[in-house]
Amino acid sequence: MNGFLRGTLLAALSGVALALVGCGGGGSNGGSSGMPRYVTDLLADPGNTLIAMVTAPQDSNLYGSFAGDNVAFVVLACYPTTDNNPRPDYPLWTTGKVVPHMQTGSVAPLFADNTVRYPVVVFSHGYSGSPLSSDYISALSVFASYGYVVIAPFHGDLRFSDLTIDNLGDAIAVASHLDNFTALQALRPLSISAALTLVLEHPQWQGHIDPTQIGGFGASMGGETMMLLGGAGLTTSYFDIGSSWKQVTHDLRIKAAVGYVPYFGQPVLPAFGRDQHGLDGIDLPFLGISGTADTTAPISEVKSGMSRLTGTRELVALSGVTHGFDVASTYDIFTWTFMFLDAEVRGNPATQQQLSTMASVAGGGDDNVVIFYNNPPGAPAPTAIVQPLPLPGPYPVACSNVLQDFSRVGAGEDVTSYWEGNPGPP
Question: What pTM did the predictor assign?
Answer without folding.
Answer: 0.93
